[in-house]
Amino acid sequence: MDIAILGYGVVGSGVAEVIRKNSQSIATRAGEPIRVKKILDIRDFPGSPDSGLFTKDPDEIFGDPDIKVVAETIGGTRAAQEFTRMAFAAGKHVVTSNKELVAAHGPELLKMASESGVSYLFEASVGGGIPIIRPLSQCLAANIINGITGILNGTTNYILTRMRRDGMDFDEALKGAQLNGYAEADPTADVEGHDACRKIAILSSIAYNEFVDSERIHTEGISRISLADMQYAEYMDSVIKLIGVSRKEDGRIFARVTPAIISKDHPLANVEDVFNAIVVSGDAIGDAMFYGRGAGKLPTASAVVADIIDIAKHNECNSSVWERKHGDNMVPFGDSESAFFIRASVRHKAEAEKYISGVFENVEYIRPENMNNDTELAFRTPKMTEAEFADCIGRLKGIASVKEIVNVVRILE
Ligand code: HSE
């Protein structure tokens, strides 16, 4: 089976490498050899092991009836979407690692694939090399999925791990993630949580059988997390992770991406470096955890190639269709509940404590011996809704002895 690769970046070059390296076992599993016939990229790659396959002309791919599958590893939503549509129109299956495109235009692209009688598969879009899309849509299909909780971004997990373990500063840790090929072209998407948001939206759309719009998911990144926050978390026998979570509540979907303090007893607490992990809760299976390398050239390429093999074996349209919901299928952010960790710089500690107990009921102060100073208070609140919390924060800011809210981190319970 002939295939083409669109975009010879980290993932695209990895796809060519995996197909070259494992050609024999891939042929056995696919039932026929898989050959990369063309690679589309506007750049030149002198000395590449794939030289001779490059083209800058899309017609050489879309006009070639021998090419059955196109691997879209361009990323972004512009050219990637145009080429994906051209592939469907030409009767070619598309496999992709492009979570941005799937999260933004999944319903329309899946519909077009289905109408064209081809597949649109995106195992590589979530969790890098971890098999999660197919297990969720096929192996767990007998379950009603109640919730998903995961570490869904390798770059931010790598940064948080390096900061906590090695005391590395944020920028240096980010550079390491970029050098390893984990980060997006614009790492803001990683750092500010947008990448994890797209992934929880994709997983939720599969889990709850309705399209979950990433634009409607409350998302915060890790740029405000400091070493001091991590030291407080350590004192609470916890760590800080960027967590994507979703669940079905009374027929509506709650989803959120935020940094969260999680107890060291939680299964996600020991997921370090570039590793991702996803805990899926189903009514029949209970909890199942999926773990592995969440980013990087070969892990992600492995998932793209697995989709290509799947198509070679079945050679039929096996994509589902997502309906866009026009009504409101999401729990409003203000109604969602959490416990909170708050750090505030204060003018007079004793006076501030007195007023804080008038704002929040039952706060628990966090006082690590080695961080004791006269100008900062740290405490955790009981569970409350986001709307109640926003109201309390407004009142906290009005207390004269409280100088500034230094940071707020949600606590995952
Ligand atoms: N930038 C992404 C991450 C790549 O760091 O997880 C994998 O989707």
What does this structure look like?
With 413 residues, this protein is an alpha/beta fold. The chain contains 14 helices and 17 strands. Strands 7, 8, 9, 10, 11, 12, 13, 14, 15, 16 and 17 form an 11-stranded mixed β-sheet that branches. α1 packs across α12 (297-314), α4 packs parallel to α5 and α5 (99-116) packs parallel to α10. The longest helix is centred in the first third of the chain and has 18 residues, at 99-116. The radius of gyration is 23 Å and the shape is elongated. It starts with a strand and ends with a strand. The model has no long low-confidence stretch (mean pLDDT 95). The structure holds L-homoserine.
Shape: elongated
Which structural class best describes the helix and strand composition?
alpha/beta
Low confidence ranges: none
**What profile does the largest beta sheet have?**
11 strands, mixed
Could you tell me the number of beta strands? 17
Rg of Cα set:
23 Å
Nearest-integer average pLDDT: 95
Classify the beta-strand content into a percent band.
15-25%
Name the ligand types: L-homoserine
What is the number of helices? 14
Distance between the termini: 49 Å
Helix fraction by DSSP (H/I, runs of at least 4): 25-40%
